[in-house]
Design goal:
39% of the residues lie in helices and 17% in strands. The chain is α/β, with parallel strands linked by helices and 289 residues long. The protein has a single domain, classed as TIM Barrel (Alpha-Beta Barrel), CATH 3.20.20. α1 packs parallel to α2, α6 packs parallel to α7 and α9 packs antiparallel against α10.
Amino acid sequence: MNNDHPPIRPPSEAHSTLLRITEGCSYNGCTFCPAYKNIPFTIRSAKQIKQTLLSIASVHRASKRLFLCDGDALTVPQDRLTETMAMIHQILPEVKSIRTYANAKSVSTKSDEQLRTLRQDGLKVVHMGLESGDDVTLKRLNKWGTAQEIITQAKRLRQVRIKLFVTVLLGAGGTQRSDQHARFTADALSQIDPEYIGALTLMPYRGTPLYEQCANGTFTLPSPKALLGELKTVLENLTLSRGLFFANHASNYLPLNVRLPGGKDQALKLIEHALGDQSALKPEWMRGL
């Protein structure tokens, strides 16, 4: 792997073996994301991938879980993905679950049969950024597609039994669309009905277009109290058949880990308490990306 830009993986994949099959992000246009701004998107060759797998096998026993890096492995052509997964199982037979980031655009390029084949080949979990269910907010973030287009692609993954970890961004609507962002996001998540949801808090990062919007006053991030209000609104309006809701990312003011639907009431009580006593919130110096 290129140590000039180490692979990026979700916090929940901390114990997964990492395998880089692409570098950078195929879309790389979101206004809030600093992750791949100066990294050209490339697909690694089968030879490079095999060499990495052999290196992993020679150094240590792989985890049962393997995460495909970087930003969006599903952009890789289907035949190359099939070849890669076959190599993984051949060289690292202990791997039982393959995971990756994906965006709705790349999922849309795969047929239902191709997605079903990927599931059979071991793709068990996809991490997808919804960010917001509000189309106005999505357009400002320069995300691909409308909320309904993202929902449609997410549901296609669920239909072939690929589990979904969907992330959303508290504060993404700014002060102007805070309520709409929270309510429409809850509705979109309810339609997708994913197994896992991760709520992060937007933190403008220097060098991104969103940071410049904050600097010139065209975007204003809601206050900590308003962000808690968004979290409350999302949970109040969220309906899942069964799933886990995480708001324990380093960016969040109030860490939460909620099993839904049973844990909703207790989580809402914790938020209400924090709204009345903000000393319970994480201090700014402890927050980060």
